[in-house]
Amino acid sequence: MNDAGKAANLLGQIPQTENKGLPPVHLWNPPFCGDLDMRIARDGSWFYQGTPIGRPAMVRLFSTVIRRDGDDYFLVTPVEKVGITVDDAPFVAVELIAEGSGEAQVLRFVTNVGDETEAGEAHPMRVEIDPETQEPAPYVHVRANLEALIHRNVFYQLVELAEPREIDGAKWLGVWSQGQFFPIGRAE
């Protein structure tokens, strides 16, 4: 079956739910049916056979059945699993809603596909530093082994909320959410 046929077949197998909950892709173990020429770019744009997927509803639908196993990403239905390429993270956190302050603060992120996640013990944040450029790449856990890259503008909002704290003898800037402190950079 060609890629267009695989994509059409996959769309027809995604269960539709009345309550808008996410399908339980972690429970499905269908056979692997090959790779699909689908890619999620670092900026959160979805491509099919090199062409941007311009329909937000279709991107949202595909985003509900994405799963990460190890370092590989798949779109999964109850009867089929196809590999896709993800340049960095499958989602981008494009909005930050901060409520409260200090240790009682809660940080809620909204992704490019409309998922919401509150940073905390179940949804940690982390920052990787590029060894060559020293640029930070911040992430927040969204669901079941999937993360969102935190957009640069949202990261700047986090920096404005940051406060200093000493961790293992080093001074860090970080943010609180749900009683958890997340370091985002070394304090100078």
From TrEMBL:
InterPro entries: DUF1285, DUF1285_beta_roll_sf, DUF1285_C, DUF1285_N. It comes from the Bacteria. Residues 23-89, 90-184 form the DUF1285 domain. Signal peptide: none annotated. This is DUF1285 domain-containing protein. It comes from Stutzerimonas zhaodongensis. The lineage of its organism: Bacteria, Pseudomonadati, Pseudomonadota, Gammaproteobacteria, Pseudomonadales.
